[in-house]
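Everyone, describe these structure tokens:
***
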Amino acid sequence: MKTTPVRLVRLLPALVLCWVSGALAGHTITAVTEELPPYNMTVDGKLTGMGTEVVQAVLEEAGEEARIQSMPWARAYDIALNSENVLIYSIARTPQREALFKWIGVIAPTRWYLFSLPGTLFDLKSLDDARRYQIATVKADVGEQYLVDKGFVIGRNLQSSNKYEHNYEKLKAGRVDLWISNELNAHYLVRQASGNPDETAVAQLNLDDLGGAEGLCMAFSRKTPDEVVERFRLALERVRADGRYDAIAAKWLK
């Protein structure tokens, strides 16, 4: 019976480690997001925004490359749910989504409201008061999921779109009364439409109990190796610790 040389036996752990590291490094990461200005948005054919810049910094820190693709949220969400090695951002972390993804961490702040047009007033003391109005939502996003979970019905008192811009257009056209969105996105779209940098969306009801209010996150699909996920968690921590995150935030949180 042939025996394995002692020297080779001693080398086996190192060889296995090299093979595992190489295999993990060979994972191709797909990154997906949506048009959610100013977090993620395409300007002159280039994807930019606060969330995008943070993700790009994390990718660089982790030593990974990924082509980031922007698409309707429902499609991005479905890809991240059902594919391997998919990074999705800017996504709210809610109890409903907790077990569906492997979470990296918060990349941008957010607060959610029901908004209306300037000059309009709705005496909304609770979410129940909003049930008699038409509300614009984005398909499969956290705002729509929240309202559906509260008993609102798509096609009855919710009007679902693929883009946040479409919802603001509906509001201006009088096709809906209210619009669920996060604060930064709502103010950005109002200012872009009006050309007035001081104009803001009109918040009618603060949705404090909407999950994920601590911020928008980056997360991996469940079919992603834990080693990759942990490497990205540590990379985000370093981006936050050395001031890169604050420098990016200062550009966009105005």
Observations:
- Residues 1-26 have pLDDT under 50 and may be disordered.
- DSSP finds eight helices and twelve strands in the chain.
- Residues 191 and 199 are 6 Å apart (CA to CA).
- The radius of gyration is 22 Å.
